[in-house]
């Protein structure tokens, strides 16, 4: 049986690894829902999201409906690995459905699901992001 590490413990890299510190700063902005501040971590004027070029403001705008529906939405790091300029993360994401989300009125239900994200760093900024979040599980929990 594999042991599960506590969230936000990142044993795969040294505590002072600059890539780890960069990501911790980024996830702190994510969890504060300071999406404008997140833009400083992205290449400009575009970065690739799931192999499609997106303008930086579009990247952060995608979070607005999520936090309107789940004002306490939070990303908890479960696993974190670094391979050169690539950062691989496994998250537990959760929130309380207190606002309308994808046409569904607030239910007050607490939801949780998983997310996997791979980041590619270029000159200290995220240039490519591949992301998979189990939004189907979220929808099932609020219906």
Automatic annotation (TrEMBL):
Lineage: Eukaryota, Fungi, Dikarya, Ascomycota, Pezizomycotina
Matching InterPro entries: Cyclase_SnoaL-like (IPR009959), NTF2-like_dom_sf (IPR032710)
Organism for this UniProt entry: Cercophora newfieldiana
Alphabetical GO biological process terms: polyketide metabolic process
Domain of life: Eukaryota
Pfam families: SnoaL
Name of this protein: Aspartyl-tRNA synthetase
Matching Gene3D superfamilies: 3.10.450.50
């Amino acid at each position: 049986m594999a042991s599960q590490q506590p969230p936000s413990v990142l044993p795969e890299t040294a505590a002072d690894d600059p890539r780890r510190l960069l990501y911790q700063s980024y996830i702190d902005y994510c969890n504060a829902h300071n999406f404008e501040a997140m833009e400083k971590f992205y290449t400009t004027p575009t970065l690739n999201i799931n192999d499609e070029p997106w303008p930086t403001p579009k990247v952060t705008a995608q979070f607005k409906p999520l936090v309107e529906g789940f004002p306490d939405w939070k990303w908890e790091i479960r696993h974190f690995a670094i391979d050169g300029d690539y950062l691989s993360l496994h998250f537990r994401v959760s929130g309380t459905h207190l606002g309308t989300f994808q046409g569904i009125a607030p239910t007050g239900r607490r939801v949780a699901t998983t997310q996997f994200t791979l980041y590619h760093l270029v000159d200290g900024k995220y240039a490519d992001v591949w992301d998979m979040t189990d939004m189907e599980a979220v929808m099932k929990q609020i219906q």
